[in-house]
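Q: What residues go here?
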């Protein structure tokens, strides 16, 4: 299933470039695209894979693949936007990194069992340097998170499903008003639509 990785590997980067399912257009504020991006990128940061259900009180950001400083005309273009946690958004700032819709991050980065992220090529090396993904506190947090998830999977399957599943509230994209939508079929492929059809996986 597109965008979904093995439940046993919560920090496994996608092995294929992301293929966008949605194509809304016409918003004058890029922040208005947030519900679409949450559904698009499966409710997690595209850069560090942190999930929204892990940090419900955190602030989440709409990040520009090509920074606004370099291309103001792309500021509100959906295909130039991704979902990021506030920390990664701040670290990336005006830097450029590989477009996850053109480059599979799973071919560039690998997360080890100790929480360290290994760069597999020059693209991965730049991602690590720009986003500072291997700072000790981040590495320690990933290692601790993996241990906690492993323990939950063994001892509390219901709790495991809660922290490895989808948010309770999913965006209802069909109710969102947009001037245009280049990929209208994506609404029927949204996670809310899948839930309504009984197709939403318990974990992802």
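A:
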């Amino acid at each position: 299933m597109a965008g979904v990785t093995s439940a046993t590997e919560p920090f496994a980067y996608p092995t294929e470039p992301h293929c966008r399912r949605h194509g809304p257009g016409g918003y004058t504020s890029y922040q208005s695209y947030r519900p679409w991006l949450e559904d698009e990128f499966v409710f997690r940061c595209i850069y560090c894979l942190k999930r929204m259900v892990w940090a419900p009180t955190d602030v989440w950001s709409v990040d520009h693949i090509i920074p606004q400083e370099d291309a103001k005309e792309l500021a509100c273009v959906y295909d130039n936007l991704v979902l990021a946690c506030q920390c990664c958004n701040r670290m990336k700032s005006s830097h450029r990194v590989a477009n996850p819709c053109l480059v599979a991050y799973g071919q560039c980065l690998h997360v080890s069992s100790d929480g360290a992220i290994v760069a597999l090529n020059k693209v991965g090396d730049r991602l690590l340097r720009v986003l500072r993904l291997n700072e000790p506190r981040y590495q320690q947090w990933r290692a601790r998170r993996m241990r906690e998830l492993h323990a939950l999977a063994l001892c509390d399957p219901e709790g495991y499903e809660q922290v490895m599943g989808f948010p309770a509230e999913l965006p209802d994209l069909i109710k969102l008003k947009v001037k245009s939508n280049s990929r209208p079929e994506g609404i029927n492929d949204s996670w809310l639509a899948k839930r309504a059809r009984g197709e939403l996986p318990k974990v992802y």
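A: Context that may help when evaluating the design: The chain has a mean pLDDT of 94. DSSP finds six helices and six strands in the chain.
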